[in-house]
Amino acid sequence: MKWSARGPGARHVAVVVENVPAGVDTRLRKQLDDLLGVGYRVSVVTMRDPDNDRYRGLPGMTLLEYPPPPQRSGMLGYLVEYAVSFLWAAALLARLRMRGRIDVLQLCQPPDIYFPLGLVLGWAGARVVVDQRDLMPELLAARYARPPRLLVRGLHALERATQRVADHTLTVNEYLRDRLVAAGAAPERVSLVRNGPVLARVQQAAADPSLRGPHTHLVCWTGKMGRQDRVELVIEVAERVVRGLGREDCGFAVLGDGECLDELRQLVVDRGLERWVHLPGWLTEAEVFGHLATAAVGVDTSLQAEVSPVKAIEYLAAGLPLVAFDLPETRRIAEGAAILVPPGDVDALARAVVDLLDDPDARRRLGTVGRDRVRDDLAWERQSLVYLSVLADDGADDGAAGAGAFPDGAPEVPDAAGDPDPAVS
User: Fold this and answer.
1) Which domains does the chain have, with CATH numbers?
2) 302/334 Cα distance (integer angstroms)
3) What is the pTM of this model?
4) Is beta strand 41-47 parallel, antiparallel or unpaired with respect to 12-16?
5) Of 391, 380, 325, which is closest to residue 103 (Cα–Cα)?
6) pLDDT by residue (tens digit) across 109-155?
7) Tens digit of pLDDT for each residue in 147-184?
């Protein structure tokens, strides 16, 4: 654990993140860059990981790392993981608080287990901000066909306890906002901060034809491979495109890692799709954006109605048309920039991919709509205004943020109008 400080007058933000290390959590990394950029002192409680090295030795940054908890499967495995993580967070925050004040405590959730720490630090003068990215009852329902009713009720109770402690809650879409209000949050204390990419970094990526391999077109899926993400449906789409619709000129890059990666690689082998489907594992952000700059179509196979897929916003930022199931939050961010098909209809998803491969004008048109929407609204450069205003307690709401969160003025969002069109390959 390395201690650093930017001076006694700087406000101090302590962040707790559990599901992934801080250096891997793309949303948290954007937030940390913003906080450090405007002069906060920041301490992060996170599991130890080499990707955290990017923050070691930075002025104003303190990493409080603990050994990665056991990663066992099943509900008992989750209980052990969360219990170990909670105990480490409690010990490290107590040590941190003994060394000085904590002005803001940010809890990155799920899991919704840290409200006791928020309660104690709130009594000690910290303002508690919850950054709610997903909902645990919905995640459980997406992973298990018949989750235990008592467990679901317990997860809802954790939500209510968290909202009783939170001074302000950040979340990623309207569905989550409504659910959190139903759990007890006052509407004026819930702000929408979508998880858009940093547009400037997306636009730095250049197309690389070698990523297509021997294929004329590339279709991309990106993200974390949890069971709830239904990544196996991407493999089914690839099989229907290649064999059912005869498009052997199309390759699929399935980018990311997670609990299902090995199973998915075996599924590709079992289906005899090695020539067309590539699963390289975890890639850097720059490598992912390079694939998106090269691809013709981005695909999402999630069936979670409550999720605003980060991958979809990244596709739109890169000028890629999206093909996905017609779900409420997907439609909110991508309508006019996507082809949306009935949920669960894999054949329709495959046909939509092929239709776009055969229609470069449609790809260009949808890509332009998506790129403009990200530039004007969804890019992190826009969302950051609300995030920093909430941390500064400037009374932000969903539509605006206090300019005082940026001492030198708000960052400029790049204009993509003159960029080459990556949606045409």
Assistant:
1) 12-192 (3.40.50.2000), 199-376 (3.40.50.2000)
2) 14
3) 0.84
4) parallel
5) 391
6) 999 999 999 999 999 999 999 999 988 878 777 777 777 788 888 88
7) 778 888 888 999 999 999 999 999 999 999 999 999 99
